[in-house]
Specification:
The chain is 43% helix and 15% strand. By secondary structure, it is of the alpha/beta class. The protein folds into two domains: 139 residues, HAD superfamily/HAD-like (Rossmann fold), CATH 3.40.50; 68 residues. Helix 8 links the parallel strand 6 and strand 7. Helix 1 packs across helix 4. It is globular and about 55 Å long. The N and C termini lie close together (12 Å). InterPro entries: HAD-like_hydrolase_sf, HAD-like_sf, HAD-SF_hydro_IA, HAD_2, HAD_sf, PGP-like_dom2. One of its GO terms (cellular component) is cytosol.
């Protein structure tokens, strides 16, 4: 049994896809580019952060000779747009609040590791799960992003635990690659942004169909 649970955020704890789609399309429109579909946004959620905005520009029809110059401006504009109203279209997945409350009651350490910018991650966590997580590790200019395993290992070290005492829970191949490279036990969720069948190549230790299926994996009080 595990003493800590480290979650991905988008597609694992929160359904942020509608918010992400709205902000991406507002950013593309600001720079005179074409909108993307919800399904294209779902694909963007699977990317490491370094690939997100180049792919967004490509999907928006950005000419190749403008992509480099627009990369940083669209990133900044997108973040500013998201920060104005990050929770309007976002909802926790069913069963997640109950899971976090129960883990808290048991004394299980809980944390989030996300490639979402830290200000955004902290804002949505404080809105939806106040007081329920021990640590939130989002992206800053100085942090390492998934799938680099150091991102996960640094968080485990911060929690004061060993790899074997922690379970990482995520929904995309970026999450699978992160946990596997770090040597951390891994659960893939079936309700996220990637078909769980496509994650089988990473041989997750568990594939869970609902949040409550995670509870037996953690120490009871």
């Amino acid at each position: 049994m595990f003493r800590a649970c480290i979650f991905d955020l988008d597609g694992t704890l929160l359904d942020t896809l509608p918010t992400l789609c709205r902000c991406c399309n507002a950013s593309l429109a600001h720079f005179g580019l074409s909108p993307v579909s919800a399904e294209q946004c779902r694909g963007l959620c699977r990317l490491p952060i370094a690939e997100f905005y180049p792919r967004l520009l490509l999907l928006g029809g950005c000419p190749s000779d403008r992509a480099a110059e627009l990369l940083e401006p669209i990133r900044r504009y997108d973040l500013q747009t998201y920060l104005k109203d990050p929770c309007a279209l976002t909802r926790p997945f069913p069963g997640i609040p109950k899971l976090l409350h129960e883990l808290r009651r048991r004394g299980t350490a809980t944390a989030v590791l996300t490639n979402k910018p830290a200000p955004l991650a902290e804002q949505v966590i404080s809105s939806f799960f106040p007081g329920l997580l021990n640590s939130v590790a989002g992206q800053t200019p100085d942090t390492i992003s998934k799938p680099d395993p150091r991102s996960l290992l640094h968080l485990i070290q911060f929690l004061g635990l060993s790899r074997e005492e922690c379970l990482f829970v995520g929904d995309t191949d970026v999450d699978m690659r992160t946990a596997r490279a770090a040597g951390v036990p891994l659960a893939a969720v079936a309700w996220g942004y990637q078909d769980p069948r496509s994650l089988s190549a990473y041989e997750p230790d568990w594939i869970v169909r609902s949040p409550e299926e995670l509870l037996p994996l953690f120490i009871k009080d």
